[in-house]
């Protein structure tokens, strides 16, 4: 299957971060974000098929969390985001209003039961956690941006937040 990456680039897997990254063996350049001239749609489908982790739902209850929680999220970036690029798009040009319309649509689809946050995050999230169905792992207070943390810690397990805005973009969070 085609990756959508420019000639010379390939997808590799980081053992230390347990995430895919982009590597050019000829130039020895590696990066977390896709290189310029990437076909975002082709890459999105390739990553969804070959670099997605199926997460266990029962893993949380078996661990001592020490005040930490586990969440997944779906991120939609916009041109005002602190880093307006992602694994899907080298340069994000959508406005904040356009991003809000997109994520509101995702929120409605998740809340209606038409799809799950994890399924949508795999192909639509602008965060590298998309490869893990949006899973951010365990985190405690002070580990995330303030708005994200506040929204996450008030959720009960299984609950989904409304749209949350941070410097990174717009999020829907599931605990």
Could you tell me the mean pLDDT? 87
DSSP E strands, number = 7
Looking at the structure, what is the overall shape?
Answer: globular
Q: Number of helical runs?
A: 4
- Poorly predicted segments: 54-64
Biggest β-sheet, characterized?
4 strands, antiparallel
EC number: 5.2.1.8
GO molecular function, one term: peptidyl-prolyl cis-trans isomerase activity
GO biological process, one term: positive regulation of transcription initiation by RNA polymerase II
Domain WW: 3-37
Fold topology:
Blueprint: E1 10-14, E2 19-24, E3 29-31, H1 40-50, E4 69-76, H2 96-112, H3 117-124, E5 135-139, H4 146-154, E6 164-166, E7 169-174
Antiparallel strand pairs: 1-2, 2-3, 4-5, 4-7, 6-7
Protein name: Peptidyl-prolyl cis-trans isomerase
InterPro entries: PPIase_dom_sf, PPIase_Pin1, PPIase_PpiC, WW_dom, WW_dom_sf
Domain WW: 3-37
């Amino acid at each position: 299957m085609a990756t959508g990456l420019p000639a010379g680039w390939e997808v590799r897997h980081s053992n230390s971060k347990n995430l895919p990254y982009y590597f050019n063996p000829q130039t020895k350049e590696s990066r977390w974000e896709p290189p310029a001239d990437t076909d975002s749609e082709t890459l999105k489908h390739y990553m969804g098929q070959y670099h997605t982790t199926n997460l266990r739902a029962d893993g949380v209850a078996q661990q001592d969390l020490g005040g930490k929680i586990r969440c997944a999220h779906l991120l939609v970036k916009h041109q005002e985001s602190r880093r307006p690029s992602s694994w899907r798009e080298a340069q994000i040009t959508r406005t904040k209003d356009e991003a809000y319309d997109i994520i509101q649509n995702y929120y409605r689809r998740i809340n209606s039961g038409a799809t799950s946050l994890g399924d949508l995050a795999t192909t639509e999230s602008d965060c590298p956690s998309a490869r893990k169905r949006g899973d951010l792992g365990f985190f405690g207070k002070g580990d995330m941006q303030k708005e994200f943390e506040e929204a996450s810690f008030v959720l009960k397990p299984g609950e989904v937040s409304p749209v949350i805005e941070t410097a990174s973009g717009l999020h829907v969070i599931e605990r």
